[in-house]
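Our consortium's second objective concerns turning raw sequence data into structural hypotheses that experimental partners can test. To show how far this objective has progressed, the report includes one record in full. It was chosen at random from the queue rather than selected for favorable results. The single chain below, 145 residues long, was entered without modification.
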Amino acid sequence: MTGRRTKLVCTVGPATVNRIDELVAAGMDVARVNFSHGTPDARTRAARSVQAAAERSGRAIALLADLAGPKVRLGELVDDEVTLEPGAPFRLRPGGDMPGSSAGADVSQASLAVDLRPGDRILLADGAVVAQLALVHGVHAAHRR
């Protein structure tokens, strides 16, 4: 056999950034950096560590930037849980610091109202709740479950 046809992909992050040489020695072909976590500086350090380890080993190690994108987070709620009634409006408020209720909640993405259009589907709770955007008013977005 002339060589393996499978590539070894290793996720690098805070727990592995000081062990990159070990991963390369173990056969790592691709270093995956998860952009959903950490800071830009931490991701840059991880990439530079991989490049340096590749140079030391004389092997080409690919960098894979996992760009899943940021999640929009709901702000604090009055209670731990909020019950949404089918058909009842629920307002998403970009920014702000008001506790959420069954009428609406703050969201982490300031540009939410700019990014959405009436009729867009919105998934809440990692897709467990599906809603349809009814209207966009100023910086607020209202939808029905």
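The partners drew two points from this record. DSSP finds three helices and eight strands in the chain. The chain has a mean pLDDT of 85. Both points have been shared with the crystallography group to help prioritize constructs.
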